[in-house]
Amino acid sequence: MHIRKYGKDFSRRFFLEQMSKGVIATGVLAPLWPTIARGNTIENVYPDEISTLEGLTGGRVNTGDVINAGNVELLKDFMDPVSYLQVSQMGREIDTHATTTNPDWLMPSDYLRATVTNSGRARFDDTGNVRTDDGSAWIGGNPFPEARTAAEAFANITLSWGRFDQTFYAIREEDLNPDGSTAYKYDFVWCEMNATGRVTLDDNPFRGRDDTLRYQSVFFNTPQDVRGTAFLSIWPYDQTQFPELQGYLPAFKRVRRYPTNQRFEPLLPGPTWYVSDAWAAGDPFLTWGNFKLIHRGPWLGPAGLGNFNVNHENWERERVGGPKGQSFIRSHWEVIPDVIVLEAEPVKYPRAPISKRRVYIDARAMVAFNGVSYDRRGEVFKNFEHGNGMSVGADGTPANVLDGKPLWSWNFVIVHDVQTNRISLPELVRSSGGYDTHYNDPDDYNRYLTVSAMRRLGT
Fold first, then answer.
1. Which of 41, 180, 277, 434 is deepest in the core (most CB within 10 A)?
2. Whole-angstrom distance, CA of residue 186 vs CA of residue 224
3. How distant is the alpha carbon of residue 34 from its chain centre?
4. What is the pLDDT of residue 102?
5. CB under 8 Å to 70, separation ≥6 — which residues?
6. Nearest alpha carbon to residue 234 among 212, 250, 249, 254
């Protein structure tokens, strides 16, 4: 007879004790972040009973099994309400793999190194903004790799979305009607550049602009009737201030400034996502408030491997479920042994259509993988599930996807408005609308992240 020293009850008591103190402490058998900082893998940080499907279900679901309507009830307590609905009632199926123990597969290596180098130097100033211990803007990596509060965890996921200094994502999106038919298809680019907190590019802050957090643009390439439509958002470093949002509409041949509350509207007809939804942290974190720690413990989510389709030259993924079998991207999930679930409210957006957002953060890398929004009545409104992970094959072997090396990145997004049953499926692809995904190209600022660039792209 095998007597488990660290069963679910032990881990459950551990997490409940931490929550009762109002703080977060990562790692169960050993401290998480010191283990990572020493360059070690993390298989000895969490017991098997909370880091395997076998442990969570008493062997009734095993690693490698497909999560479907036949076994989802055994996993309901470890899933967000929207994905549970999709699997239990809409035919979604989710593949599974072993829990990732290599920290290099949980974030880009440069970002990991910066987090190690700068660990312990972050502070909140009197306004609640993150500062380095010398009072300067944050210098890169997760400011709070051992987040002790919900506010620290939320700051981690807001200050650097994609974990690169510069990202240029080629994206294909299909927006579905409630009957599963296609309403819209878009090819577009999402471009980001951090002005502060840079970990690879030399100038930190960018051109001395320590008052700016990031530049972010999105421009559409197909279909023809929206080609050239572009939006540019410039974020102040001060997270109590709203980003400047400007848009270029080819039909009017001019740039117009958009009001702040337009962060809660689709940019174009069809998408179920708002700018506010991006990365589950699409607004400055101090324009939200009433942060609450809701849950600590094991959870299921997309991470590690499997969500890059390395066998497709454009990385496009299979679909599954829904009325026509095409409603959801077929994804790979794992047991994430340590997840921080927090709630935040849009306190500076009185006209926001949502009352709160519940955010799911992988504590191993402080990466969000889901955000579930609730309407003003407190009912579930929609999710923003995004897969994160490495470009690796099904057997776990890293694949050379970009620039001759494996790539860590977001892979796909599922945004399901459960009240209308409309779904948007943006996915990262190698090439879209004549543009190729790439990273850390300093020339992208002049090409894509200025007002004059928006006008040029529109013409």
1. 277
2. 10
3. 24
4. 93
5. none
6. 212
| Phi-psi group of 381: left, alpha or beta (phi > 0 → left; psi -120 to 50 → alpha; rest → beta) | alpha
**Dihedral angle of Cα 444, 450, 456, 458, to the nearest 10 degrees:** 100
pTM of the model: 0.94
pLDDT given for residue 333 in this prediction: 97
DSSP H or E stretch at residue 240 = none
Q: Cα separation of 14 and 384, whole Å?
A: 29
DSSP 49: G
Q: Domain 1-459 class?
A: mainly beta
CA distance 317 to 326: 11
Instruction: Report the 10 Å Cβ neighbour count for 330.
Output: 18
Tokens found for residue 184: 């819209």
Cα-based torsion angle of the residue sequence 448, 452, 457, 459 in order, rounded to the nearest 10 degrees: 180
- Residues 160 and 8: their CA atoms lie apart, in Å, by 33
**SS3 label, residue 341:** strand
Q: Which residues of the chain have pLDDT under 50?
A: 1-3
CA gap 155, 132 in Å, rounded: 13
Q: pLDDT value at position 105?
A: 92
The per-residue pLDDT for range 112-152, each reduced to its tens digit, is 999 999 999 999 999 999 999 999 999 999 999 999 899 99
Phi, psi at 434, each rounded to 5°? 90, 5
d(CA 19, CA 103): 25
| Whole-number Å distance between alpha carbons of 177 and 130 | 42
Q: Where are the domains of the chain?
A: 1-459
SS3 content of the chain, % helix, strand, coil (to 5): 20, 35, 45
Give kind and range of the element (H or E) at residue 275: none
d(CA 125, CA 194): 20
